[in-house]
Amino acid sequence: MSLSQLARSIKPSPTLKLNEMAAKLREKGEPVIHLGGGEPKSKAPLDAILNCSAQLNTGEIRYAPADGLPAMKKAVIRYTEEHYDRLVAPENVIISSGAKQAIMVLLHAILEPKDEVLFPVPYWVSYPEMVRLAGGVAVPVRADDGSFHPRIEDLAEKVGSYTRAIIINSPNNPSGAMYSRDFVAQVVELCEKKNLWLVMDDLYNRLVFDGKKAPHAWEFAKDPPESSKLVVVQGVSKMYAMTGFRIGWAIANREVTEAMTNIQSHQTSGPVTVSQWAAIGALSGVQTSIETLRLTLENNRNVLIERLATIPGVKVTKPDGTFYAFPDFSAYSKDSMKLAEQLLDRVRVVVVPGREFGMDGHLRISYCGTIKEITEGVDRIKWALDPAAPNELFLGDRKLVRDWA
């Protein structure tokens, strides 16, 4: 079979391989703990379910416009005005089948072959492959000091004649780091000065802890809205725990929104109608579910950080938001894929290798599960790695005895 060069250039995800291994072990009755998940465990808001059900009950489930239902756009406009203090028009909004599709059609709309897209390290695992699928060149930018917080100098140094866009994800998946107001302001200034697109991936911007608030790029933009190259991407997956509904959106100038709509119309057509009605219910209904989720995650984060601190040699940076931590396990192995496989094999714990996010030696650990899963999962990891841990561990009814160095 002959595949295209593009298909051959896209890497398979080791994360999927780990998930498949975990699923097979669970089918055999193994007590697997999944600390690699990228979705909250709370239920979707009641208003979302009721609004979706009401539409289903009509039996009128038809195609949606390629750029989304008018009612969905109105809900996004209200949301944007309330949470970003920015009034936008329906022509500035495109609704997509998840925030990932919104970013994907944007990249198809703005990139020429070999155009470069910059993003800080660590980065969301899909950014490099999405850029490649759109014909561009991914340019990860590592902080000079090796931290999760790049300096504007680090980004500016990488800007060249082929640079077309910068993607900023804050709070960040996988690290949970939130970039400072100064940094966001400087990125906006850099993009306006160099005539670059700035994509703000804001999926976690209300899941922030310790009384902090995520800065947004619109606070600092000087370019007029209709000539601005600032694009803000949002969705209901994370904050509303509605991952399966697959609804996200982007807000941009009218020219690029129209181009994105044309591309999306040929790619998938409009997003699923009933999913949009569910999202309308979430955005327009009672908002207490977000604060409940945020408080739960903040408590879970604190428990996770305390537990990880008991493992000798593990370096932990306290997340500012999201539901991920990105501890450094390089004292045990610099090969994060090998380490993740060993943890699954030895103690039945699923984590995500940091190599996927541009920082090998780290592991992404999710704390959106239960406290029991977090504490038992980290205890198993400690037992597998720490030579000073007891020689025996019980996994359910089964006793494990350490037989490796």
List the strand order in the largest sheet. 2-8-7-6-5-3-4
CATH structural fold name of the largest domain: Aspartate Aminotransferase, domain 2
- Beta content comes to 5-15%
**Arithmetic mean pLDDT:** 94
- Report on the biggest sheet: 7 strands, mixed
The CATH class assignment of the largest domain is Alpha Beta
Helix content: 25-40%
Would you report the number of β strands? 14
How many structural domains does the protein architecture include?
Answer: 2
Distance between the termini: 44 Å
Query: What would you report as the Rg, rounded to the nearest angstrom?
Result: 22 Å
CATH H-level superfamily of the largest domain = Type I PLP-dependent aspartate aminotransferase-like (Major domain)
Known CATH architecture of the largest domain: 3-Layer(aba) Sandwich
* Content-based structural category: alpha/beta
Unreliable stretches covering 5 or more consecutive residues: none
Q: Element order, helices and strands?
A: HHEHHEHEHEHEHEEEHHHEHEEEHEE
Q: Count of DSSP helices?
A: 13
Shape: globular
